[in-house]
Design goal:
The protein has 438 residues and is α/β, with parallel strands linked by helices. It folds into three domains: 1-50, no CATH class; 64-171, Enolase-like, domain 1; 175-407, Enolase-like C-terminal domain (TIM Barrel, Alpha-Beta Barrel), CATH 3.20.20. It contains 13 helices and 15 strands. The chain has helices at 14-18, 112-118, 120-128, 148-169, 173-176, 201-215, 229-243, 259-268, 284-291, 305-311, 327-340, 352-363, 410-423; strands spanning 9-10, 32-33, 64-80, 83-96, 102-107, 184-186, 189-191, 219-223, 248-252, 274-278, 298-300, 316-319, 343-346, 391-392, 395-397. The strands form four sheets. Strands 7-8-9-10-11-12-13 form a seven-stranded parallel beta sheet, covered by helices on one side. It has a three-stranded antiparallel beta sheet with strand order 3-4-5. Helix 2 (112-118) packs across helix 4 (148-169), helix 3 (120-128) crosses helix 4 (148-169) and helix 6 (201-215) runs parallel beside helix 7 (229-243). It starts with 8 loop residues before the first strand and ends in a 15-residue tail after the last helix.
Length: 438
């Protein structure tokens, strides 16, 4: 962050510290910060560079793209503030190069398969002409377009190209990304009201307690904003009692609350040691207002790190490769979060291909060391050989082998394709409840 060239003493507040480099406190200086207000920290002789880490590898080019829309059910639908989630609808991608090297990719929407199969040339052209704008809110975009389907399609193909390139070199993907710093990644258990399973406060708390006892799970994240505010307070208290004082608890409100409701609940649950609240309210302005009333850290799926640095919220970003335009985009996002002091961890809900990509990315970036979200305990199937990733004691192993380290299970893929044909897309917006709810 800084190289030694003299000293300066500064006193700044936390928000200023998070984007000091924009104010021209130059590279190549040694500084000592004494951070005011709630934070006290000394930083000396740190090397800084605003430039992103260089990606020195040329990815292979796709010759053939195949894509399938798929569904995988969860073992029970779970509720969140504005909908019920029954499973994952995704697009699985397989690319083949002219030399016959195969790579796998995944996008977060099943209908992306239509573009990949019917507008292949457009996707390939967009990838070939990628001109990301580093250092802006659009740095992960593939071309100057607002077509979200094209963005996701390109991200999925890019994932497959990373896989193919690593396979062609006979190495795991994490070696192509700079090398693994760890091969076991922390992931959370998840809790929520589930249809036909844990519905009451007591049942949800008992479930969490059993995960801590039977699987050694140290990290938990769960849905709030489904129950009433006072019920949510009792739920968090019950979960804390069930898992013990040494376990991490995060909660996710999915924008269910007004500023006043969020401030009330977060004040009431303060004794229970909440590590983070995701999307307590529905806009950045509301998040700024809420920050004045609570010290609980916030997270969001919005990957605009410049906005986060400018406003001082959210404190953390939760994302997956597709949100960032692919593997390269997520690597850049993590590096940028590190420079700005913004936390980052992985998003739940992907199948095994994108899940493997996330694990390789996090293995190669030690800064992103916080537990990622995980619904793995609830998966009934997957499209990869061996089925869903397993985890114990809060950790998931990075898949070993060339590239992503996973292969398609053709029978499982056929099941998932057939399930999509039968049940349609799980990600329907026509049944969403209005927000905020409370």
């Amino acid at each position: 962050m800084f190289a030694s060239k003299g000293k300066a003493d500064l006193c700044i507040d936390w928000l200023d510290f998070r984007y000091w480099h924009k104010a021209g406190i130059g590279d190549g200086q040694t500084v000592q910060f004494s951070i005011c207000r709630q934070f006290r920290l000394n930083i000396t002789t740190l090397q800084h560079s605003n430039a992103p880490r260089k990606m020195t590898h040329n990815l292979l080019k796709p010759h053939l793209i195949e894509a399938w829309p798929v569904n995988v059910r969860l073992d029970a639908p779970y509720q969140y503030s504005y909908a019920v989630h029954s499973g994952m609808s995704r697009t699985i991608i397989r690319i083949t190069t002219k030399d016959g090297v195969v790579g796998l990719g995944e996008t977060p929407q099943a209908h992306d398969a239509g573009m990949l199969n019917n507008e292949t040339d457009r996707v390939i052209d967009a990838i070939a002409n990628r001109t990301p704008v580093q250092g802006t809110a659009d740095y992960w975009r593939w071309e100057h377009t607002e077509d979200a389907t094209l963005q996701r399609a390109c991200a999925g193909v890019e994932m497959a190209l990373w896989d193919a390139t690593a396979r062609s070199k006979g190495i795991p993907l994490y070696d192509l990304l700079g090398g693994a710093t760890r091969l076991e990644l922390p992931c959370t258990e998840y809790f929520a009201p589930r249809v036909g399973r844990e519905n009451s406060i007591g049942e949800i708390a008992d479930y969490c307690g059993s995960m801590a006892k039977d699987h050694g799970s140290p990290w938990f994240e769960g849905k709030v904003g489904v129950l009433t505010p006072d019920e949510d307070i009792r739920l968090i208290e019950a979960v804390r009692k069930a898992v013990g004082d040494d376990k991490m608890i995060r909660i996710d409100a999915n924008m269910a609350w007004s500023v006043d409701t969020a401030a009330y609940i977060l004040d009431c649950v303060a004794p229970f040691g909440i590590e983070n609240i995701e999307e307590p309210v529905g806009s950045i302005d509301e998040l700024v207002a809420l920050r004045k009333r609570t010290k609980v850290p916030f997270s969001s799926h919005d990957v605009d790190v410049d906005s986060a640095a400018h406003h001082g919220v959210p404190d953390n970003i939760c994302c997956d490769p597709a949100t960032c335009g692919g593997i390269g985009g997520m690597l850049s996002l993590i590096d940028r979060c590190e420079r700005l002091g913004i936390g980052i961890w992985g998003y739940s809900g992907d199948l095994g291909v994108a899940g493997a990509a996330l694990l390789h990315i996090l293995a190669a970036r030690p800064y992103a060391d916080q537990p990622s979200q995980s619904l793995l305990r609830w998966y009934t199937d997957d499209v990869i050989a061996g089925g869903p990733f397993k985890f114990e004691n809060g950790y998931v192993s990075v898949p070993e082998g060339m590239g992503l380290g996973v292969e398609l299970d053709e029978d499982a893929l056929a099941r998932a394709v057939e399930l999509y044909k039968k049940e349609g897309d799980y990600d329907r917006t026509d049944s969403y409840l209005p927000l905020p709810r409370f």
